Automatic annotation (TrEMBL):
Stored PANTHER family: ACYL-HOMOSERINE LACTONE ACYLASE PVDQ, PEPTIDASE S45 PENICILLIN AMIDASE
GO biological process: antibiotic biosynthetic process
Cofactor(s) this protein requires: Ca(2+)
The UniProt record lists the keyword Metal-binding: yes
Name by which UniProt lists this protein: Penicillin acylase family protein
Residues given in the record as Ca(2+) binding sites: 352, 354-355
Keywords on record: Calcium, Hydrolase, Metal-binding, Signal, Zymogen
């Protein structure tokens, strides 16, 4: 106990010192030091020794029947309840107990309320979040959910459970971040759950390039733009195999739309896009390819690596389902997981569902705008941003149009944003939460297909495998019907005819079941080949999907160990494609030193101790920068697009004399060989022999970016274009491998632990195991007395008697 308190004191003191001396992203609001340092109510009270854990019995009036929770040796909760609502209550209680500050700050960040607790430093961010319309989107979702009484009952029970924990806290028991920042937790609401759902939509489907694409085409001209920015990589290996036929025509052909002709460039500041490393892998192999004769499903979502983790590991057992997997703190149920009959996993689809439209105002006050030849009144919403330490709120007016909120007002031309995640949802029997609840209780392929019917956003690639032997993949969500090229560029917002022409029917979504090749997979690449009857655009990966498909196609007699190895595979097709071209261009011109020899001998695997990956990455990036220095010059005028890596490789190989290899800053005329050689010499001159892991410097930051609560210097390999897609602060946030046989054989790991308390031994116990490529065995317990698990402690939840 004494040692834990010492380390917690050291961490908190370090954190406080940094806060006092560093202008951090949370602003400058500090807690009262006396309260924070108090031995009775301050951070000292957050020390959590492992020997203090003991069985506990609680009673609550919200419960219908008794429920029991077994915490295994890793403190993962296994819930056994008599009904789905009782299970949701317990899940809400436990999640709030373990992750309350994460739940609170995540919701505040999404809806634009950080300044209430962090001060003036986050006002600009809060203003931006409100201009996205995320709170309104959550309100629309909550309104739609009222049509699904079963889902609302579960959400309300989860909310009641979270609030039961919150209501039990004294200030001494608040999580340390509340004490550090000097505020107290507020009650959880169903709207908060809806906001959390929308936070995932923001992370996964807010990426759009309408402004830079429009500027780039205007600067380059149509021909050069089309040359540098083709929509489809010919080497792509799509999610749905190209051998799949489409036995339908597009339901409603979208007419051509009017693209806007801006008089100049759009020079306004862009809203930050989700990081490019956000992605995932999932796949399933049929029993025909496995040693056991049963399917194996794998999933590893690539997201920001944080402490606490975005995932909360849990088992939930009721009469309706027995499921194990990971949930999102703030959302009931299990998002990625398995039961005794099926397993499922998700990756991001990458479709562009954010379109920007010009707004022509009818008056100087911007109260009405022109639509279809007439003035239409805009809805003006006054946003009041409360700021800690200030008496008066900051006011901002968001204007809502037919298209959506006016998100951009700084570029000389106001732009409204039509984002699918903000749209009102149609009435359905069930929605996203219902999808995951149905998967938790699913028995086979038909249940999987039925479960996906309620899902809208963000569009995901749902992988599936069953004990019966089926495997399937569906690109699932509410996808707009677009005209050719629609959504790539800013569009004319004065005509409603320029909008989407409805949504792709559920029966026409890209899908495949039990393909002849014996596996299904997705890694954020294109959903289909170019022959799919509907147009779509977006951001798609060019390398991981190709490599995973190549490996799965070559493997036979597959075992769980093989699938773990593929998740941990550091091989990338990017250097496999690029390095021979780079080396060929400098052959005979560069000195044959030890660095060049290491690169020539390299096997394209980004191993932590290797030096070749660091050399390649720097060389490729510098050659790219030198080649496209013209784009850097253009970017000084306005936001622009840059060509994709695969197009750059193709350009070096096929058109090495292209004028774009001529550098802006030199007098002489360069070719590809000159640029590549200059980049190599520059890199080698500055290279100090660091390994790939040192160069990459992977770390896992605390959600509040408090260094003392973070883990840095993880000596790991991986690469964003390899299956093991680990970067500096992004990567596989949960690895799961499930073999479906007579009983599920499951393994998983995430870099963290159940607790969000930095003073707990369960805060980050699996970071090193994750970094080492090790897995935990996932036990789907038969009941509270299952001897396969050695309980750490147990909790009993009883209905409160009158």
């Amino acid at each position: 106990m004494r040692r834990l308190r010492f380390f917690l004191a050291l961490a908190a003191t370090t954190a406080l010192t940094l806060i006092c001396s560093w202008h951090h992203p949370f602003g400058t609001q500090l807690p009262a030091l006396g309260a924070f340092l108090s031995p009775f109510t301050g951070f000292w009270q957050n020390a959590e020794p492992i020997d203090a854990l003991a069985d506990l019995a609680l009673s609550f009036p919200e419960l219908e029947q008794p429920a029991q929770v077994v915490f295994d040796e890793r403190a993962v909760p296994h819930i056994f309840a008599g009904s789905r609502t009782d299970a949701a209550f317990v899940q809400g209680y436990l999640t709030a107990r373990d992750r309350l500050w994460q739940m609170d700050i995540s919701v505040r960040a999404t809806e634009g309320r950080l300044s209430e607790v962090l001060g003036e430093g986050t006002v600009a961010r809060d203003r931006m979040q409100r201009r996205k319309g995320l709170r309104r989107a959550a309100e629309n979702a909550l309104k739609a959910w009222q049509h699904s009484p079963d889902e609302m009952a579960i959400i309300n029970a989860y909310t009641a459970g979270a609030n039961a924990w919150i209501g039990s806290l004294s200030p001494a028991e608040y999580p340390v971040e509340f004490k550090l920042l000097g505020y107290r937790p507020e009650a959880w609401t169903p709207l908060h759950t809806a906001i959390f759902f929308k936070s995932m939509a923001e992370t996964l489907c807010f990426r759009h390039h309408d402004i830079p694409a429009t500027n780039t085409r205007k600067l380059l001209g149509d021909a050069l733009f089309d040359y540098f920015f083709p929509e489809y990589n010919p080497d792509q290996s799509p999610i749905i195999p190209e051998s799949v036929d489409w036995p339908f025509e597009a339901a409603q052909g979208a007419a051509e739309v009017s693209e806007v002709q801006l008089s100049g460039l759009y020079e306004g500041e862009l809203m930050p896009m989700p990081p490019p490393f956000i992605g995932s892998n999932n796949w399933a192999v049929s029993g025909d390819k496995t040693a056991s004769g049963s399917p194996i499903l794998c999933n590893d979502p690539h997201l920001s690596l944080t402490l606490p983790s975005i995932w909360y590991e849990i088992q939930i057992s009721t009469p309706e389902y027995e499921a194990y997997g990971v949930s999102l703190p703030g959302v009931p149920g299990i998002i990625i997981g398995f039961n005794r009959d099926i397993a499922w996993g998700v990756t991001n689809a990458g479709h562009d569902v954010v379109d920007l439209y010009t707004i022509e105002w009818a008056d100087e006050q911007k109260r009405s705008y022109i639509l279809d030849g007439a003035a239409r009144e805009a809805e003006l919403v006054e946003e009041r941003i409360v700021v800690a330490g200030q008496r008066e709120p900051v006011l901002d007016t968001v204007r809502y149009t037919y298209w959506g909120p006016v998100a951009y007002e700084s570029g000389g031309q106001d732009l409204a944003m039509h984002w699918l995640a903000v749209d009102e949802l149609p009435e359905k029997p069930f929605y996203e939460l219902g999808t995951f609840m149905k998967l938790m209780g699913g028995k086979g392929l038909d249940d999987y297909r039925e479960a996906l019917k309620g899902y809208s956003s963000p569009t995901q690639n749902f992988a599936f495998a069953s004990r019966e032997g089926d495997i399937a993949m569906t690109v699932n969500g509410r996808l707009p019907i677009k005209a050719d090229q629609q959504g790539r560029f800013i569009q004319d917002g004065t005509q409603t005819a320029n909008g989407w022409k409805g949504y792709i029917p559920e029966a026409h979504l890209p899908r495949v079941a039990n393909p002849e090749r014996g596996f299904i997979s997705s890694a954020n690449q294109h959903s289909t080949g170019p022959d799919y009857p509907y147009y779509y655009n977006g951001t798609f990966d060019d390398y991981r999907g190709r490599y995973i498909n190549r490996r799965l196609d070559s493997l036979q007699g597959i075992t769980v160990a093989d699938m773990k190895a593929l998740q941990l595979d550091n091989h990338s097709l990017k250097p496999e494609d690029a390095l021979p071209v780079l080396l060929g261009l400098i052959a005979g011109r560069a000195e044959e030193d030890q660095w060049l020899k290491e690169l020539k001998a390299w096997d394209y695997s980004f191993e932590p101790d290797a030096r070749a990956p660091a050399l390649f990455e720097q060389w490729f990036d510098r050659a790219y920068e030198m080649t496209f220095d013209d784009f850097k010059t253009l970017e000084e005028q306005a936001p622009v697009l840059y060509p994709e890596a695969w197009r750059f490789i193709e350009l070096m190989e096929e058109v090495p004399e292209h004028i774009f290899f001529d550098r802006v800053e030199t007098v002489q005329r360069e070719r590809a060989a000159d640029v590549v050689l200059a980049a190599w010499e520059e890199v080698v001159a500055g290279y100090e022999g660091q390994s790939w892991s040192d160069y990459k410097a992977t770390g896992i930051s605390h959600l509040g970016r408090i260094p003392a609560f973070s883990r840095t210097g993880l000596g790991v390999g991986g690469y964003y274009d390899a299956p093991n897609a680990i970067q500096k602060g992004f990567g596989p946030s949960w690895r799961m491998v499930v073999a479906l046989g007579e009983a599920p054989e499951a393994y998983g790991v995430f870099p963290g632990g159940p607790s969000g308390n930095p003073g707990s031994p369960f805060y980050a116990p699996d970071v090193d195991k994750w970094a080492a490529g090790e897995y935990n065995t996932l036990h789907l317990m038969d009941g509270p007395g299952d001897k396969a698990v050695s309980p750490l402690y147990q909790m009993t939840f009883q209905p409160e008697k009158d």
